[in-house]
Amino acid sequence: MSTTKPIIRRILAASLSAVIGFGVSGIGQAQLTPKASAATALETKVTLGVNLRVGPSSSTGVIRMISTGEMVHVVGQANSYWLHVFDKYGNSGYISADDKYTNYGGPSVSAPSSSRGAQVVNIAKSYQGRVHYSFGVRNTSKLIFDCSSFTEFVFAQVGVDLKWGTSAQKNAGSYVGKGSLRAGDLVFFDTKGSNNGVINHVGIYMGNGQMIHNTPSKNGIAINSISSGYWSQHYVTARRIL
């Protein structure tokens, strides 16, 4: 019996395995090192090497070390201790707000509510492609949240302490009508069957009739209209936190 065909089969199998293995490796790498959009201007200088972290805490993962002399774009001051920045590669993350690390002299978390609302929206947007959805989970180190633990996580970065859960968040702040929404307001929905007003989902209003939210339908961050379509039909109420 000829040995040519078995040899050819082994060569083809090895080649196919290499291709499949490469594809899986590439996908895995893309998921582990997501990038936010690069900042349009890098206006702040790093004056001492500092870790760029996933979240505003020294217990969160390190994305990379930003070297002395590098420039970053500061989105805003998350709290007294952390700055939310984009680096030169377009990575979104957090660095220490201690003035020994940068020459940043911008506004603090005491900025006007409208500015803080825009900051909340920008922070939420920076997690597109990075956050995954899992009901009943709040894992800040792996960026796995449900809808309300994500809003809690985002608002904490501007110094606002929200409780986890739509049952608590629907009573936070003050009521605001749908026609008076502004960026940073929390918007609430009833997604089970017909809309009878039982709240089970929350998002952050962005302006122009859109919200940003962590949703199981995308397994992550999505931007949707609340002026028309599904979310308009399931809208219940809104609260102003800032």
Overview of the structural elements:
- Keywords: Hydrolase, Protease, Thiol protease.
- Belongs to the peptidase C40 family.
- Residues 38-104 form the SH3b domain.
- The N and C termini lie far apart (80 Å).
- A six-stranded antiparallel sheet has the order 10-15-11-12-13-14. It has a four-stranded antiparallel sheet with strand order 1-4-5-6. A three-stranded mixed sheet has the order 7-9-8.
- The chain is built from five helices and 15 strands.
- It folds into two domains: 34-110, SH3 type barrels (Roll); 113-240, Alpha-Beta Complex (endopeptidase fold (from Nostoc punctiforme)), CATH 3.90.1720.10.
- The protein is elongated, with a radius of gyration of 22 Å.
- The model is unreliable at 1-39 (pLDDT under 50).
- It has helices at 4-32, 113-126, 147-156, 166-169, 230-233; strands spanning 44-45, 50-53, 62-66, 71-77, 82-86, 92-96, 132-133, 138-139, 144-145, 174-175, 186-189, 201-207, 210-215, 220-225, 235-240.
- It has 242 residues and is an alpha+beta fold.
- The longest helix is centred in the first third of the chain and has 29 residues, at 4-32.
